[in-house]
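Hey L., structure's done. Input below.
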Amino acid sequence: MFETFKNEINKIAKGSRKIDDELKYSFLIALLAVIHLFFSVFYFYFNILILVIYNLASSIFYYTLYKFFVKKKKFFQLMNIMLVEILFFASSSTLLLGWDFGYMIYFLTLVPVMFYLLFTNPRFYGNLKLPLAYSVLICVMFILVKEMSYYIVPPYGQYIPESTVSVMYIFNSFLVFLFEAFFSLLFVFEILHMQNALKAQNTRLDILANLDPLTKLFNRRSMEQHLNHTMDMAKSSGTVFSVIIADIDDFKKVNDTYGHDFGDRVLSNVASIMKSQMRDEDYVCRWGGEEFLLLISANKEIAKSVGERIRCEIEKSVVTDPFTSISLSVTMTFGVMGYIPGYSMEKLIALADENLYKGKKNGKNQVVA
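Output:
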């Protein structure tokens, strides 16, 4: 159980796990219940019965909140109830004991906490009015209690020694700093999680933008970027490359005879074979329809051998429709063209296309360079 808890904390710290509201409010409720329990023991020692009863009741109250609000995921209502309780607790304790106990400094931590809890609630994303309204309410309450403290003599302040009053002020200050640090840490984790989620989403969008949805190969737009980069490198540093245009033979007949769904299976199978036969430094894309373009980082002879290897693998493969039990083998024709200094990429692709046309005219299922 401890290992599981440790793993969850590590995930939250790395931003790979969202801090869900149930975990957040459960911890907050437990912390507040323990604090009230401590105060009940403290005031029992000094025989201040009204504060003992109130703090004990508050501990039980927070346990009830957990059962009826956290479990039912009523987090907005829970937040409001907790806000009212903290405001009442800090105000009443100040008026009963005195300003020097430091209970009013709890007001200082409520403003950033309200902003955090509301801005991490999907219902209130980007809504500034509500947290600002809470801030005004807290400010008004603070001023009101301050004014009342000038006219009300704390009835229980004399029961506690002055040295203990200073200790209580330090203790309450410590709790406020603890809350501030805790929620600041949560805020950092929330931002980290959002950043990670945004990166993951951008990665998915890049994949969708660059890949053909059927074959999972590069699409024409992304391949053009690789082609332009390769041409720039060839012009600047003299690197060698080749382009191959490949086309599935008689693909229209496949679609007309077996239907477009089966045709898609053929395209996916061909794409899978091409991808498996490519080197890391080479690229392949679906250029359009049943036509593919390969960018090979090598001279024309090596590119021709790559095309021949792919052609043989495709010729040997069989595409089967599991629903109709139709099985079919297809062939492909390849046109290869190596880089010629001074030629544009468009010219090289056009020449590769001419070689493809020659292969189609001379019987198909061949590599022409």
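The two ends are 65 Å apart (CA to CA). The chain has a mean pLDDT of 90.

-- N.
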